[in-house]
DNA sequence: GTTAGCACTCTTTTTATCTGAGTGCTAATT
DNA sequence: AATTAGCACTCAGATAAAAAGAGTGCTAAC
């Protein structure tokens, strides 16, 4: 091994790391002089220039123009993230801060993910995106109907993941007590334990058909039940802190808008694709086109399966060394918290 | 009267109107030549220049710099809106379009206002703001508690305005059937008919005290009830279409952000202040500082009292002649729709 | 292998000049 | 008395030229 010429020796790696570090902070191309002045680099600018030329040849750096410093390429960032940066370990204060974000009243997967998302957007001054697939795993535990006015009824649906949604239905006629009791019982018998994912029009149609003609007045309620389930499913992708990005001038506003408007289609695929627990995607990767942007995503698990993901979207020059540990910590905690629930409360 | 020199004769008014019209469309200062070329102005540029100088002296116009055309001042806009512009009358298609926006499933004040707000944001490419004070008028019609898991209960609150909110409570102990029945009955006896506006901590404390020691386990539920009422109250101000404004470069992004972040405090006062049914506020008026911005607000009524307001926020150079009729129509329709309900369904 | 020195490149900043839209005033016209 | 043509004047914005500066690559010396 010692005979092999190392294309990327230790010094070059340190220089590359220093360049990315600097670029992340300033956003300006980095010159040889700036690097030479760093305390732990003990060579002259000329030497650094040679190394930089080499790093450029290897595809880790590029020059915006001849007389400018260097900026990292995609490959440069990747290497930095995978091998070069020294991820900050979280201080106890950091952990305490993050724990507080997860201290929600009722720690369902939903509430935890949502709260983490908002906190992270705040902390990083970036946008965050969450995907919550808890609905897919969760089943209906309860459907209630409650009269609230003349011909007005509230449908209430509770799922095993602890989520609740309600919906007002306006009917053509008032229901008799008998009808209401029938409905509640019918729902308990036919929908309890049914996966949110499976409950679609076809199920409803079958139920309506099976219900018999006498109870046909109840059909609109069943329709409402279906819409409630849909509501749970549609809720999958959520973005927080969009405004943090719109203010930045290194990201294209139009592209951002387009992204946010189509978040459901766009992000869904990105988070679906199989990848490790934590992954960083760049700009045009994975079909979402926000030039100069980067996305750090991490998975949240539950019983071995992916229960959701939490991600930060920002400029390419994110403070990876800080943010990655943040995300890792949050997703780990959430993963633990929702697993604990499993034993304690049998929510799923 | 005929002897009095008219400072603002008909021609000057027409010229002012033409200048504002043009500026609203182009955003560029308007010169004498452009006005002279209009079909219904039959005087030379020189004459128009004289009139423009006069209009400037009167405070209706200003020049960004010597060699530029004129732009309207606040007073210019005000006169334009109050007297000069010819508001477009809505075509049948327009009305149909707007009616469709109000065709919501369950026409509560809330739903109507929300739907109108979103539609208006879309139609005008501006932000819209709504204030919904329905909660103030509405009273509690129902409080239910529904068990949904070990020590987990859903509180459901329904108000007379047809709004529903739910909240999960996690208790220290499971409730007995007896306790649940007691709670429901206690709520029905003590909170039914109580105004959302009045239900605060002090009421809850009184109820807890009156409940007796045996039922003290229920205190957290009462706390939850209080929070639900708070939730109704907090929901007062909503903004839609923020992004439409962030894209514009004639509005200061920072000021916009600040505005949106503090919308609750800022907008509340603006809409509270007594004013006519429809009002236009400019830039720095009323304490909200988005330079170069304008806000058209219109009231929604219910039984003579203000039930809410609907407003459009955009650049000063809004298409008032089009948007004002839109808002007027929408608020009128909503006012009618929620009054009809009064007779038909006795929701309030 | 490293470094000082230096010519070279290319962006950015500064300075100067030009152009044109639009005005205000005066004097002629209706 | 009101309107208009004519003209000098102003000033923002565009275009061009010049200067400054940051950073490089290469060569030759260490």
What is the CA-CA span between the terminal residues of chain A? 54 Å
Number of helical elements of chain A: 14
Specify which chain pair forms the largest interface: A-B, 31 and 32 residues
Poorly predicted runs of 5 or more residues of chain A? 343-348
The SSE string of chain A, one letter per element, is HHHEEHHHEHEEEHHHEHHHEEEH
Strand order of the largest sheet of chain A: 7-3-10-9-8
By oligomeric state, this entry counts as homodimer
Report the strand count of chain A.
10
Structural class of chain A: alpha+beta
Rg value of chain A: 26 Å
Beta-strand residue percentage of chain A: 15-25%
* Major beta-sheet overview of chain A: 5 strands, antiparallel
Helix content of chain A: 40-55%
Structure description:
The structure is a homodimer of 348-residue chains. Chain A is an alpha+beta fold and 348 residues long. Chain A is built from 14 helices and 10 strands. A 5-stranded antiparallel sheet of chain A has the order 7-3-10-9-8, sandwiched between helices. In chain A, helix 1 crosses helix 3 and helix 5 packs across helix 14 (320-345). The longest helix of chain A has 26 residues, at 320-345. In chain A, 37% of the residues are buried. The model of chain A is unreliable at 343-348 (pLDDT under 50). Chain A binds a DNA duplex (30 and 30 nucleotides) through helix 3.
């Amino acid at each position: 091994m010692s005979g092999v010429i190392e294309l990327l020796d230790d010094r070059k790696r340190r220089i590359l790391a220093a360049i990315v570090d600097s670029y992340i902070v300033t956003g300006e191309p980095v010159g040889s002089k700036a690097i030479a002045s760093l305390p732990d680099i003990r060579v002259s600018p000329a030497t650094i220039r040679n190394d930089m030329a080499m790093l450029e040849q290897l595809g880790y750096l590029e020059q915006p123009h001849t007389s400018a410093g260097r900026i990292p390429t995609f490959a440069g960032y990747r290497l930095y993230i995978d091998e070069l940066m020294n991820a900050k370990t979280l201080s106890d204060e950091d952990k305490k801060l993050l724990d507080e974000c997860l201290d929600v009243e009722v720690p369902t997967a939903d509430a935890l993910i949502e709260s983490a998302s908002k906190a992270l957007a705040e902390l990083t001054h970036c946008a965050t995106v969450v995907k919550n697939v808890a609905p897919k795993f969760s089943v209906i535990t309860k459907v209630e109907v409650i009269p609230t006015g003349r011909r007005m009824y509230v449908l209430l649906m509770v799922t095993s993941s602890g989520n609740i949604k309600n919906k007002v239905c306006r009917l053509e006629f008032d229901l008799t007590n008998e009808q209401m009791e029938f409905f509640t019982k019918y729902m308990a018998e036919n929908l309890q334990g049914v996966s949110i994912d499976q409950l679609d029009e076809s199920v409803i149609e079958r139920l309506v058909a099976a219900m018999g003609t006498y109870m046909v007045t109840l059909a609109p309620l069943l329709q409402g039940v279906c819409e409630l389930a849909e509501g749970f499913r549609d809720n999958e992708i959520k973005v927080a802190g969009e405004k943090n990005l719109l203010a930045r001038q290194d990201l294209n506003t139009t592209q951002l808008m387009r992204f946010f408007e189509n978040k459901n289609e766009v992000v869904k695929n990105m988070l679906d694709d199989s990848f490790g627990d934590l992954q960083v995607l760049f700009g045009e990767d994975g079909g979402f086109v926000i030039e100069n942007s980067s996305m750090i995503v991490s998975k949240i698990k539950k019983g071995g399966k992916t229960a959701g993901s939490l991600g930060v979207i920002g400029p390419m020059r994110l403070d990876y060394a800080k943010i990655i540990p943040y995300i890792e910590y949050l997703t780990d905690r959430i993963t633990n918290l929702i697993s604990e629930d499993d034993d304690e409360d049998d929510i799923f």
